[in-house]
Structures are given as C-alpha cells and as structure tokens.
Amino acid sequence: MQERESTLAERAARPGLSDLLRHPSITSRLRERWNRWEDLLATAIADDVGAGLDDPQPKVVAAAITAAIRIAAAALQKQPKERKQIAEQVFDLLASGLGRYGAEVRGTKRNSPRKR
Who contacts 108 (Cβ-Cβ below 8 Å, separation ≥6)? Predict the structure, then answer.
C-alpha cells in the first residue's frame, strides 16, 4: 500500500506534457526531431516513387504528412476525447489533396506539377 501511495505521489509530482512543451529548449528539440523525421520520410517517399534528388514533390508530401501529425497531436492535447474525430479530419483533408500522389506503378510516368 505504501508503495502504491509513493507511486501516485511520484506521478502527481511529474510535469505533464503541456507543462514540458512550455519550455523553449524542449520545443526546440522536438522541432529538430520532427525535421529529421520529415527528411527520412521524404527520402523514403522519393525511393518509393522513383523520384530524383531534385524533385521537390517528396519533400512537399513529407512536410504535409508530418504537419498533419503535429497538428493532430497538438489538437489531441487540448481535446483528448475528440482524438479519433480530429485524426480523421486532419488525415481526410490531407488525403483529399495528396491521395493520388505516387499511386502509379514505379517506372511509369508520375503526375507532374501543372504548368501555368
């Protein structure tokens, strides 16, 4: 029983995620990680669709995906009971604009940006 009480006291003394995210050094470190994940995702997407190193599309897609995840995660902190609805809304919006990107079989012509 005493062990349980000390565990509960330790949990109560720990800062919550929202408390941690108020510290600039922590948010800066998280931003660095997001940027690394975004770069890794862009490389994986480029490999998957056969894009060249100078093709900006994989980077745009990776940025959109990581932004959607960050936005959904931030919204979930404020509205935890709405997590499924928020995630669906964010990813439905993302899919409506990027859903066909890279859908063609590798080696065939991919959609290129429209020329204006």
Answer: none
Q: Which residue has the higher pLDDT, 57 or 53?
A: 57
Specify the 3-state DSSP secondary structure of 69: helix
- What is the spatial distance between Cα 41 and Cα 25, in angstroms, rounded to a whole number? 24
Distance of CA 20 to the CA centre of its chain: 19
pLDDT at residue number 62: 95
Count of domains in the chain? 1
Model confidence band, residue 24 (pLDDT cutoffs 50, 70, 90): confident
Alpha-carbon distance of 51 to 110, in angstroms, equals 9
Q: How far, in Å, CA of 10 to CA of 16, rounded? A: 12
In a domain, 46, yes or no: yes
- The answer to whether position 116 is within a domain reads no
